[in-house]
Predict the structure.
Amino acid sequence: MDKVLTTCVYCGCGCGLFLHVEDGRIVGVSPSPMHPMSKGRLCIKGWLAGDFVSHPDRLKFPMVRREDRFARVSWDEAISIIKRKFREISDKSGPDSLGVLTSAKGTNEENYLLAKLARAGLKTNNVDHVARLCHAPTVVGLGYAFGSGAMTNPISSLAHADVILIVGSNTAEQHPLVASYILEAKANGAKLIVADPRKVQLADLADLHLKPKPGSDVAWINAFLNVIIQDGLINERFIIERTEGFEAVKQSVSVYTPELAESISGVNAQDLRKAAIIFGSAERCAIVYAMGITQHIAGTDNVQALANLSLATGNIGLDGTGLYPLRGHQNVQGSCDMGALPEFYPGYQKVSDAREKFQQAWGTDLPDRPGLTALEMMAAAENGNLKGLLVVGENPVISFPDTYRIKNALNLLDFLMVMDIFPTETTELADVVLPCASFAEKNGTFTSTERRVQRVRSAVAPPGEAKEEWRVINELICQLGIASCYSGPEEIMAEIASVTPIYGGIDYGRLDVNGIHWPCPDRNHDGTPILHNERFPINRARFRPVEYIDPYELINDDYPLILTTGRSLYHFHTGTMTRRTSLLDREVPVPFVEINSDDALAMGIRNGQRIIVETRRGQLFLDARITADISEGTIFVPFHFTEAPANVLTNWALDSQSKISELKVSAARIRRPEDDRFSG
Amino acid sequence: MIVFLAKDKLPALLSELNEMLEVVAPVRIGNDTAFATWVGQPIDFEKNPQISPTEFLLPQREVLFKYIQHSGRYVFEEVEPKSKLILGMRPCDLNAVKVLDKIFGTEPFDKLYFRRRRSAILAVLNCSKPEETCFCSHLGAGPECIDGFDLLFTELDSGYLIESGSSVGMLILKEHSDLFQEVKSVYLAEKNERISKAKETLNSRPNLSKDKIMGALETADWESMGNNCLSCGGCTFVCPICHCFNILDLGVPDGERLRCRDSCILSGFSRMAGGVNPRKSAGERIRNWYFDKFQFIPENTGLLGCVGCGRCISVCLASMDRWSLKVPR
Amino acid sequence: MSDYIPMQAEIIDIDIESSNTYLISLKILEDIDFCYRPGQFVMVSVFGLGECPISITSSPTRKTLQLCVRRAGRITNGIMDCLVGDIIGIRGPCGNGFPLEIMKKNIIIAGGGSGFATLRSLVNYIVDQRSKFGNVAVAYGARTRRDLYFMQEYKGWQQAGVDVGITVDIGDESWKGDIGLVTSLIDKFKLPQGSAAICGPPIMINAVATKLMDRGFDHSDIFVSLERHMKCGVGKCEHCMIGPYHACKDGPVFSYDKVKKLL
């Protein structure tokens, strides 16, 4: 038995684990005790991360749609069809009628090549990935406030905080390793404040649980800051020396009294005051947040509101302080870093500023027209402006909002090519399906949520004729006439380092087993675990006043409930991997909707009863899970399940700054199937 | 039989053994030490690996049999395990093997387990370097190995004392006698000194005897422990005695029936198809885990279900003090 | 061969017992004398889906091996999707069965819901060897009339001199019999002290056992068949642990004194 050290494939924690290999098959997983972050521990998904790799459903051969069925073809044939199709569409409708959705599950090297394929090969900036639906507001919001849209501190820093404010993150289930550091801090005496409409596990262990209505965050966060300012708990020295724009924020939050915040958000004014004083009085405060903050039309403002709070109290740049946006995919940080975003080249170099540099580096003309974001591409497909799409390791049919609309948009495309490891709801719609290597079958790097660039190592061979994506993308780039012949991921990383200042010192030899936190500008630099400790990349951090706006969909008599969506501990994203992991699927085998117990009583709904959940876009049949752990008037549906895809219900409303859609708030109603008989 | 092997001769011995069977040993991978097939890597006896070598007797995932459909009927195929020599298993883990032997040996005898067990030669390492979380001596499971081994290594400054404890072990020592030296009395003295030192270290730690733990079980606040538990299953996956498994099929019409490790910490473990769950809360499941080790396994096998290896302490994701059974509040 | 390799059996008949329950008759395709006792179960395989425990519904005194399968999950769905002539796997018999050698001659058999499936084996076993037993009574309750199993057999049991009481939770116009709990049936029987065999949900088991103890039954004479999640069927995998016992090996039948604290 061989044991191969690699990085976990699930969430952004980036835990180190061993894949146990015998006779060319994965027979087990164990944690790496010396991993600097995970230290010999894993969550249940990590312990079972090897299970899906050898599942018989794996895609093994390239396939092409012939009428209504797929036919197996050779790689050469598949590649030549793709090349021909791309050419045809580009010639007829222009390069911007093509788009690329890359994968937050792919390596940095693969994302880099995909972004290069889009820009240098297809001549379009239409390249995006699933970060658009998770942390685009962080990239934009923290990019503006601090000059860097990433987590400021390493995860382990949380253990040294005196107060931890957790907002819109079910950390114990979504980032269990982060939760372990939060529990460690708590054991050391730290105070815990959780703001979440659901009584998530950490809320149960917290000193204070604030229960804001989904979509009301700016109101209560502004009030939170207002209390801190009123009570003189701000860090004036920090504000004066390192920031700008505080006065405007002070002015704007002054109207947000806890009482006003209570009337908007439902957060008890007394609790809010208490929480603000705990936070303001402590020396080192950390703020952890996730999708509960970002997936709103006010996502970027929500992020700024939290940044304002950190800056006003001087909680940036030191161990135990900081802002912790928790990334959901193991390499969604890296995918952003690699420029799989329409507006950025690798390392957040703006397309408008760095085009010349990349034209030189890639030896070809690059487009200067602005690219489309993920949902903008879907809209362009709807109105016929986007005709060809390459989707890699992503399942938009299940993961994007408003499933029916997405399906319709994808169906309208002339050409859809999907690369994945399993058949998905999206491969079903494809014209060409290419089989890929899973994380256990390729070399490369992932960048975790704490900006740690770490190695992924191949443990077994891909099944059948499946190939590592970088080989396929490399081949496509060559076919499109761009010189591109890498011997392997290590050489791709060398190129990345040469054009990406924050990755300048990243080199496989240096990554070894601990990885390196970017920014790491050169080979002699040890990396930067804590950002902004002396200065911000923009010199002075920026305050910006933010005002509360209503969520896009408000409840009314027809749709009296707020529907919010999310994940379960035992499943990941669209379930393609976890639902093929026997123990995980056994834990949560069926989709469900959480309903407040008082609401359920009023509606006459029993626990386990099959009910209908409806929004303006669609309806689902779901088993009711009745619980006191969710606020009245709010219901929760996890989105992992193909048999009841939660995104049938969600809407497209976009945050104007980051173009994320408001997945966390939809107006909904519930019916019992038996009620239909009477309603005629 | 007892011999002395100079340190620099260990690779030669392993190479010779490797010609006949697969040698499994604690090797360095990155900064870690883990049991893996030895193919010439440096051996690391410094740390006791987090995953016990019992995984070679009861693998995390193994094929029970392959089913192949053939004109309406099925044909079944089984896989023969390879012969192995497991080097560097510590006394705690050997004691765990004794418990597993009892559990899988009670009627009906588990042939698959014993096929692996019989094809494995156990070369145990007396423990002179207990980990910080170890408490084997309080449960009579270490640091010294008394019986049950084929070979017993004790690391000394200049080499290893190797004792045989079975005819297979003796045969190995005889077959490779050219590599060994005669045992001097100073070596035996050094062995005793090392073991007493390890005992001293372990005994100086807080007492975690069976009675002490049983006492803590009576007063433990299972509900609070359940509320803190992050349901990672780590405690069950690192325990050398935990042997819960799941059986599942992969593949239609032909495929494999697999036996995979399972964890009683998961709620689906005991939940029945209709949804009824005899151990509904995390607290009840943690309680069951402890009582299994300190009451049920002893009732069924006469042996304690815990060997004090301490792995469940270091693997726990929640900041739980697993053995004083207290939760920080 | 390992104990985990099943025997192959052909489905030779499928009867529909209720909307979600089939009675499946099997012919074992191996040259083996399949001996079992009432109260035992088999591990049934549908290759590709997996294996699950199903109690044996037929009596060993009769020729055909029958299983009563209720739609509850993936594997039971898979079994119920099979057609006559299909091959499934069988491992067993597993578990201990009812300890007829120590049970008294007077027997009350009480079943609730799908738990009655395993008791039918015992009832028919007694009916076929009626002279060996004394006073025998059957008390069986289900949710509605449509959920009752083996309706066509009750008359035969009565003709063999067995007291039969049937009750449903929810009655309707077509139901002329008793409505209420199984415990209420027991009051109707003039049952001399003896042994009891009970299977059903824990709450029903406890209610019936308590009632019988009130009527002078000793708790060690009351035998209950317990349902648990099972995987290996041979006492190793630990899914079916009830305290120190394994339901698949030490059970599924336990004397009530052993398990009443663990239910």
Remarks:
- The longest helix of chain B spans residues 282-301.
- Chain B has ten helices and eleven strands.
- Chain B touches chain A through 47 residues (CB under 8 Å).
- The mean pLDDT of chain B is 93.
